[in-house]
Design goal:
This protein is of the alpha+beta class. The chain has three helices and eight strands. A hairpin with a 2-residue loop joins strand 3 and strand 4.
Length: 228
């Protein structure tokens, strides 16, 4: 049984439309799947924190497609920018993190820029990073006590005055009287008869006279004997 030409053309046109719709649906599905796994700026986050006593800025990439991305950090201050550093990160579903060592000051602002060769990502992380109000704790060296620049002005203590002998004898103790001191007025006769210091002189003169007299007597006797 032959099919009329008009019917055949209608069937062919309907089949072509069905095939076109199917192809379009496939392309849309593939495109949607690719977009879902593509790198996106919303998958990047940044924060300022401390590692010990040092400040750091960390950037985390949760791109499940693993697209390499270049991350650059800029410090913004007084209308100008200073580049802190640039690193490449390859994201994972759990999140891949890179760290920038930065001795950040409190309440400082940093701009974080992300760029990829694939998917044409070339923009900043929204909001950037503002550091905490308190800086990382720094350990201060222990201050050692410094010796005095000049010796103490105070003189060494001297022995108490009571330890040195007194310059004058105590007035309460009278010095002993000398042996040859004059006797009281009532004993004047006793001093004249034997206690005077001239007694020795007189005794010496008397002895000399006795010796001289004896010599004279001896000489006279010898001369008288010679005459007899």
């Amino acid at each position: 049984m032959s099919v009329p030409p008009s019917l055949s053309s209608r069937i062919s046109g309907r089949a072509g439309r069905i095939a076109g719709v199917a192809c379009a649906a496939t392309v849309l599905a593939v495109g949607a799947a690719g977009t879902a796994s593509a790198c996106n700026i919303s998958e990047f986050t940044a924060a300022a924190s401390c590692t010990g006593d040092k400040g750091v800025i960390t950037v985390t990439d949760k791109d499940s497609s693993g697209t390499p991305a270049t991350v650059t950090v800029f410090l913004q201050s007084n209308g100008s920018e200073k580049e802190i550093g640039s690193q490449v990160v390859k994201g994972t579903r759990e999140g891949a993190t890179i760290t920038f060592e930065e001795n950040w000051a409190p309440n400082a602002t940093y701009r974080i820029h992300v760029k990829t060769d694939k998917y044409n990502v070339d923009e900043d992380i929204k909001g950037g990073v503002t550091t905490p109000a308190t800086a990382c704790a720094t350990e201060k060296p222990t201050e050692k006590p410094t010796p005095s620049a000049t010796p103490s002005s105070s003189a060494p203590s001297t022995p108490a005055e009571s330890a040195t002998p007194s310059a004058s004898a105590s007035t309460s103790e009278a010095a002993p009287a000398p042996a040859n001191s004059a006797s009281p007025a009532g004993d004047s006769n006793l001093a004249e008869t034997g206690a005077n210091s001239n007694t020795g002189l007189f005794a010496g003169i008397a002895a000399a006279l006795v010796v001289a007299g004896g010599g004279v007597v001896f000489a006279l006797r010898k001369r008288g004997g010679a005459k007899a």
